[in-house]
């Protein structure tokens, strides 16, 4: 037969168009679109929506935490959950520990991922120790090899970089074309607020949000954009939580700074009040930046509608709840010890589809752009993120009318709760295909954990140009 696989009679959507066609796949690539026949296998997609496989450009898998804190997902369970959620590529972080070389960190994370993934995987670096060796030798070499995106933190004692250090990193980015992603929250303000709150007896999860209100994020976003302006580089502001931050991004763009921006499901459907739930329940919602209020949710929706946001990612960061109530086991009681991050790799696409597309806030083409096409372009994932002849056959087949009440019992991650428990969504991915291989078929796992490739993005210079707005 001419094709290995035909996906027949589906309604296809890309970032640009919607149309009905059969998709012909050979050797893992899309080779034909139209009225097709002659395949070893045909999947009937009539009445279904056929989308590019999701690209989750911001996830944390198998990261080392503080002593006693274990992440709820390794690469196997994390990418399995991603595949069930309609994704075919995930972008986790390779974290440099202080004192460690970037190459050692990469070797370590590659070893965790190789042969263990149900989806394709491509690493961002996290630079926590920008020594002369790192800035002068290692980072330029790695960018040239294809590690063309890296994250820096403006908070956390063990991660924070000074403005001076960020400028050093951005100088390398300017030279090599790497894209700098920034966690924009101000360290000193958070530290000060945390001490004040604890001194006043404020220890519970809700004080996490009170210690880092939106102005803390707005100020850091302004500073990150300014450092990018001084350095003449694009910058990606990740996990944006509300309107004040969005306004700061718009101002920077207005003066010509190339600011890219990402938001996440937690800023659309969770609120600060969730951190104040009974007992330790609130710890299930502790992430940074924290979810805000209704006004901030609306501002994030507006940013998705008007194109302020380039990318919609999960920021899946799966700390376990049961053993510790998301607290360190050695009895430290304050919110400051609650690991920051919540799971969401499987629920990202259904939440945006249901709340966004089904409720008429965004159209299906914008949905595809935010969740697959833009991440592929911005991070230089060649042949990914769209349905076109020559592209990788990374495809998700959705039932657009299936209603699901999200619950831990239905998810496939390795962690033990979902912050979206009880949320009803309409539209669910049923079948996920990676480079022409079925990974999930009608809600059943059929792929193998060795099926995913650990990719590297294309070389930095090329992607730096593309990242320009
Ligand atoms: N930043 C993230 O991107 N994820 C989880 C925690 C954090 O601070
Ligand atoms: Zn972050
Ligand atoms: Zn994150
Ligand atoms: Zn491979």
Automatic annotation (TrEMBL):
Post-translational modification N6-carboxylysine, affected residues: 151
GO cellular component, one term: cytosol
Family: Belongs to the metallo-dependent hydrolases superfamily. Hydantoinase/dihydropyrimidinase family.
Keyword Acetylation: no
NCBIfam families, alphabetized: D-hydantoinase (TIGR02033), PRK13404.1 (NF009941)
InterPro entries assigned: Amidohydro-rel (IPR006680), Hydantoinase/dihydroPyrase (IPR011778), Metal-dep_hydrolase_composite (IPR011059), Metal_Hydrolase (IPR032466), Metallo-dep_Hydrolases_sf (IPR050378)
PTM info: Carbamylation allows a single lysine to coordinate two divalent metal cations.
The entry's keywords: Hydrolase, Metal-binding
GO MF term list: hydrolase activity, acting on carbon-nitrogen (but not peptide) bonds, in cyclic amides; metal ion binding
Cofactor(s) needed by this chain: Zn(2+)
Name of this protein: Dihydropyrimidinase
Transmembrane helix among keywords: no
Top-level taxon of origin: Bacteria
Domain Amidohydrolase-related intervals: 49-439
């Amino acid at each position: 037969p001419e094709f290995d696989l035909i996906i027949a009679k589906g309604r296809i959507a890309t970032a640009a168009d919607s149309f009905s066609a059969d998709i012909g796949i050979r050797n893992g690539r899309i080779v034909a679109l139209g009225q097709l026949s002659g395949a070893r296998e045909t999947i009937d997609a009539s009445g279904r929506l056929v989308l590019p496989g999701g690209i989750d450009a911001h996830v944390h898998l198998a990261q080392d935490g503080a002593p006693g804190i274990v992440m709820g997902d390794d690469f196997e369970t994390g990418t399995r959950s991603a595949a069930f959620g309609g994704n075919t590529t995930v972008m986790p972080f390779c974290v440099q520990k202080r004192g460690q070389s970037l190459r050692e960190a990469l070797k370590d994370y590659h070893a965790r991922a190789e042969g263990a993934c149900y989806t394709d995987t491509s690493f961002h670096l996290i630079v926590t120790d920008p020594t002369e060796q790192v800035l002068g030798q290692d980072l330029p070499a790695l960018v040239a090899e294809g590690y063309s995106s890296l994250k820096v933190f403006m908070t956390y004692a063990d991660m924070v970089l000074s403005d001076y250090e960020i400028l050093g990193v951005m100088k390398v980015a300017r030279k090599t074309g790497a894209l700098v992603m920034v966690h924009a929250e101000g360290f000193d303000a958070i530290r000060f607020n945390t001490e004040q709150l604890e001194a006043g007896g404020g220890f519970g999860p809700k004080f996490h949000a009170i210690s880092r209100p939106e102005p803390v994020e707005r100020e850091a976003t302004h500073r990150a954009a300014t450092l990018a302006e001084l350095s003449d580089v694009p910058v990606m502001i990740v996990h944006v939580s509300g309107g004040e931050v969005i306004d700061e991004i718009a101002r920077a763009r207005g003066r010509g700074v190339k600011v890219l921006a990402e938001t996440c499901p937690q800023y659309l459907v969770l609120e600060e009040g969730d951190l104040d739930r009974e007992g330790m329940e609130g710890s299930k919602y502790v992430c940074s930046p924290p979810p805000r209020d209704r006004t901030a949710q609306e501002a994030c929706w507006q940013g998705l509608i008007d194109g302020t946001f380039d990318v919609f990612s999960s920021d899946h960061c799966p700390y376990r709840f049961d053993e510790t109530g998301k607290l360190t086991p050695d009895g430290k009681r304050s919110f400051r010890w609650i690991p920051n991050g919540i799971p969401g790799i499987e629920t990202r696409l259904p939440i945006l589809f249901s709340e966004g597309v089904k409720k008429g806030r965004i159209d299906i083409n914008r949905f595809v752009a935010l969740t697959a096409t833009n991440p592929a372009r911005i991070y230089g994932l060649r042949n990914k993120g769209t349905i076109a002849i020559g592209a990788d056959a990374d495809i998700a087949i959705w039932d657009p009318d299936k209603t699901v009440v999200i619950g831990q019992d239905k998810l496939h991650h390795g962690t033990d709760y979902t912050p979206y428990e009880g949320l009803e969504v309409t539209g669910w991915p049923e079948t996920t295909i990676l480079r022409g291989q079925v990974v999930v078929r009608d809600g059943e796992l059929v792929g193998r954990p060795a099926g995913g490739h650990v990719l590297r993005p294309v070389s930095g210079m090329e992607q730096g140009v593309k990242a320009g707005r």
